[in-house]
Amino acid sequence: MALLGAQLVITLIMISVIQKLGPHFSLAKWFLCSTGLIRYLYPTNDELRQLANIPKDRSKAKKGNKNSQNGKNVPDTFHIDRSLDVQLETAKISHLDVVHLKFYNEYQWLVDFSLYTSMVYFLTEVYQIWFPIKDEVNLSMVWCFLVILFALKFLLSLTVQYFKGEESVGERSTCIVMGFMYLLIAMIVLIVDENTLELGLETAYTSFNQSASQFLSKQGLNSSGPASKIFIKFCIAVWCAILGAVLTFPGMRIAKMHWDLLRYFRESKLKQMLLNISFALPFILVILWIKPIAKDYLTVRIFSGRNTPLLTEGTFEILRLLIVISTIIIKICLMPWYLQAYLDMAYHRTEEQKKEAGRITNIEFQKKIAAVFYYLCVVTLQYLAPLILCLYLTLMYKTLGEYQWFWLIRSDASNGTSVNDELNVTVKESMTGQDPTEDLYLTLDSLKSIFGVQVFRGVFGFATWWSCFTYFATTSVGLIYQSYFSTK
Asked: What is the DSSP letter of 197?
């Protein structure tokens, strides 16, 4: 039996494309350098001296405006009034500007690898339309899983930055408190009845436990199940808490940019409405898993003048996934607005400083402006990584849950016995009593059957819902914070 087949061919082709196209085209670079983003340039020492009427020290000018202390060059430092009327110059962002930014390599890898993974996934889905995958390994799921791991790794790396240094006490405390808060919320969610919140974890646990018990029994081991339900739910709750903690500051950053955009577009009601709709869409995604409000209303209730519900269960499931994907695409399309709102912080910092009394060194003032652009890739990662995480969890949920796109146009779509379940039964029946090689294949196939469709639907369905929930919750907390503590 073919274990890889066309899947391996698609993967090898994409690896070749990455080698040939990667050095010449980068979606990550295009996002930053070809979407019209403008950065602010900090004034030079000479410009600050001229504005502040500070005479230039000729002896220092001969040394390149640097003093020498203990054999080391020290930048020329002088004081200026905070209220100094400084007008910042602007410039379009170029590739040479971004290659040296903090976390640029991580940002570029995540975005570009996500693009290539989406190509592999699309080609695989098209291939399955004519040649359904039966005994082949779906390598597109491996690609998607790697994207999820990279997104989590980079989010953890950004969170770790808040635990370094003595000046990050507040950030550390916030992450820890939010982590425990999400742990409590996850524990509450996990005890909600499945008839209210359709997460599928109860069905997944039952399927996993029964399949595992049968497998262990065939191996001569007596067991009622590999793990208790309480232990599994506790592990899930801990994962939920970690994800909530690492999404805390990305959510607050997105809320800050959203708050600024609403002020910038105060005169454009259409743009404000678009921003508010995109902000509220994750909440719509969350309630799509509340069964009495969404699924029962559309797939059970029969309206007057109709003999059947509006949607079948299969159609509702695939439509729900499409809404998640559409929401993510909308937010990615709006990303240039949010990034420009972040870059505009340099201008607003300068304007706010003009209202302050006292003096500031030229180095501190220049760092205040330069730091905004220096952390552009960090902010971009905070914006994109949660969306990429949610997107590829959704794609894995669709494929491993064996949902089909054509359910949207077929009225008889249902969630009955899956193709793989029927295949497993056929394989087991046809291979019993064969030679040792086939017995080994049967054993591996039985092990594979432990993680059946219901298990994947429960695990990735809950992961998709929780990622949408934490995204909305963290951004909402950030927006509430801005509404109460913003200076404007």
From this structure: B
Mean pLDDT of 349-356: 88
Count the residues in the chain: 488
Q: Is residue 134 scored above 70 in pLDDT? A: no
Distance of alpha carbon 283 from alpha carbon 471, whole angstroms: 9
- Closest C-alpha among 252, 75, 256 to residue 162: 252
Cα→Cα distances 124→282, 391, 399, Å: 28, 17, 10
pLDDT of the residue at 276: 92
pLDDT digits (tens, 9 = 90+) for 64-105: 545 555 555 566 788 888 888 888 899 999 888 899 898 999
357 touches 420 (CB < 8 A):
no
Q: Supply the DSSP string of 258-314, one letter for each residue.
A: HHHHHHHTTT-HHHHHHHHHHHHHHHHHHHTTBTTTTHHHHHT---TT-SS-SS-HH
What integer pLDDT is reported at residue 73 of this predicted model? 58
- 424 by Cβ neighbours in 10 Å (0-12 / 13-18 / 19+) ranks as middle
| Residue whose entry in the numeric block shows the structure tokens 């990303």 | 335
248, 174 Cβ separation under 8 angstroms: yes
Identify which of 364, 391, 416, 369 has the alpha carbon closest to the alpha carbon of residue 121.
391
Q: How far apart are CA 217 and CA 221, in angstroms?
A: 5
Tokens 């790697």 correspond to 146
Scored b (16 or more CB within 10 A) or e, 430-451 reads eeeeeeeeeeeebeebbeebbb
Distances (CA, A) of 116 to 17, 47, 136, 147, 385: 9, 46, 21, 10, 16
Name the amino acid, one letter, at 478. G
Lowest mean pLDDT among 31-45, 50-64, 137-151, 241-255: 50-64
Query: What is the pTM (predicted TM-score) of this model?
Result: 0.88
Cβ–Cβ < 8 Å for 321, 394? yes
Helix%, strand%, coil% for the chain, nearest 5: 70, 5, 25
Structure tokens at 155: 């989010």
What percent of the chain has pLDDT above 90? 43
In whole angstroms, what is the distance from residue 194 CA to residue 159 CA?
A: 33
Report yes or no: 196 and 291 within 8 Å, Cβ to Cβ: yes
Residue 456 CA to residue 63 CA, distance in Å, equals 67
Query: At residue 306, does pLDDT exceed 80?
Result: no
**Cα(216)–Cα(214) distance, rounded to whole angstroms?**
6
SS3 of residue 153 by DSSP: helix
CA dihedral 329, 404, 7, 147 (to 10 degrees): 30
Amino acid 422: pLDDT: 41
Answer yes or no: are the C-beta atoms of 422 and 355 closer than 8 Å. Answer: no
Q: What is the pLDDT of residue 429?
A: 43
Give the residue carrying structure tokens 């913003």: 486
